[in-house]
Design brief:
heterodimer, A: 199 residues, alpha/beta, Rossmann fold, seven-stranded mixed beta sheet, 6 helices, 13 strands, B: 251 residues, TIM Barrel, eight-stranded parallel β-barrel, 37% helix
Amino acid sequence: MKIVIIKYNAGNIQSVSFALERLGYQAEITADHDTIRKADKVIFPGVGEASTTMAYLKKEGLDQLIPSLTQPVLGICLGMQLMCSHSEEGNTPCLGIFDEKVKKFVAPVQDSERFKIPHMGWNQLINVKKPLFSQELENEFVYFVHSFYVATGPDTAAESHYIHPFSAALRKNNFFATQFHPEKSSKAGEQILKNFLSL
Amino acid sequence: MLAKRIIPCLDIRNGQTVKGVKFLDIKEVGDPVELGALYAQQGADELVFLDITASHEKRKTFVELVKRIAQHINIPFTVGGGISELSDADALLSAGADKISINSSAVRNPQLISDMAQHFGSQFVVVAIDAKQLQGDEWTVTVNGGRIPTEKRLFSWAREAEERGAGEILFTSMDHDGVKQGFANEALAKLSDERGIPIIASGGAGAKEHFKDVFTKGKADAGLAASIFHFNEIPIPELKNFLKNEGISIR
């Protein structure tokens, strides 16, 4: 199986590659269109800022390539947000694979509990859907770090709750995406990566 | 529900863990990767690795170590110690660190926080504050491992750190550190109420109840400790079970 991690100006590409190594897979990190198109699985990771990252993707022509892919694609964190139609971060038009808008978390003013932003740490998955999530992942904790979120909608493949419910994962046709970091989510994350790789 | 985090902290010198470790089931007691992996397996939510290597040239060893940690450990980890330039942070990020913590270097040069946040994003930047209580609400920020007091005060410095783009604050009370009588809950609660970013509490853990207190009375988002974990005085699974039974949100 040929796994490709899309190379761009993001922070945590190495971590994703290491996580796959721990599962016994070698991934190629590349921005080469032909290599990406021919891969069996494509991972689109991301830590960074939406507008500068979109500008980079456009420069590389990846904004055209990614939505046209037909094999299973997994977006992670910022990768997931960029697969939506628009992000409030830098008021950025995104790839439009998911018909969802990315919004900033706003902590409620009157509350006994102060909600910190970013939403950082381990939170639970609820209403998980196959095939990315197997049933034993319901209520499992996974690791999130984000200040922007996607509300729940028709493409939601798993939810989580912080201030309000939001999409922990999305799925539409061959496109999968997680707001959390499976590569940093211990055993649960490994299971999710395995599920993706066995699609 | 977002879980409160339990974070073991490992001091590293020349690529080895410094404090003695009383685990019988790890092969090489000094190996931070093996110890970190064991903590991860036991349910630690994150790890912190602090490089206390004195000499500059040996810091390359630490970057190599960070890469090995990233290869072998499946939970997030922060690295700190001696980071005073963007290039230091960049090397650690490339090696696979999820976050870096800056302490004395940020006190001496607060612009460093802004620069780091701009270059790498706030989620990458933990500002560690070592402070000593003067009286009441007044805490003096110290540098060089608590040895040198500064003009900076805890609450205003924490505000500045957040304004400059810190993603988290790691507050160590030098009065509580090593005493094992509980965390500085009053100051922590004030810090947590005032700040919009997560607070990691450090210094004072000696019993399971101290973690319950730091999450309830201290309103901390995470609790960090070293020796109680290294000497297996409080095994992580036992601590997490206790906290769950006490109604704290724990993974």
